[in-house]
Design goal:
Shape: globular
Number of domains: 1
Oligomer: single chain
Helix content: 55-70%
Structural class: mainly alpha
Largest sheet: none
Number of helices: 6
């Protein structure tokens, strides 16, 4: 009986909410879906603190960057720590294709 309870607790604790799936299914918002991807993958180099001339920390900075160049960069060689996941790239592409709204 204790083993059954322990097994159930382990299974329940292993279930997590997958925010990327939410963002992939719906029209991705900048604040909930896109900005966290940039925060996780770009801001360490592309911020005032990172010292890079190209800052990618705000909607204005990200949306002012040429979207075709941005997509090319994240699909090929950015960030230097490793290419973004297909799901992350898909979310950014969908956000751009949906009009790159500040929402």
């Amino acid at each position: 009986m204790r083993i059954s309870i322990l097994l159930i607790l382990i299974l329940i604790s292993s279930c997590t909410y997958n925010e990327i799936t939410f963002c992939e299914i719906n029209s991705p918002s900048f604040n909930e879906c896109v900005k966290p991807i940039f925060d996780d993958n770009c801001v360490s180099c592309h911020s005032v603190i990172g010292g890079n001339l190209l800052h990618l920390t705000t909607f204005e900075e990200i949306s002012s960057f040429d979207s075709s160049v941005l997509l090319d960069r994240i699909n090929t060689d950015m960030p230097p720590t490793g290419i973004m996941s297909a799901a992350e790239i898909s979310i950014i592409e969908k956000w751009i294709n949906d009009g790159a709204q500040n929402n």
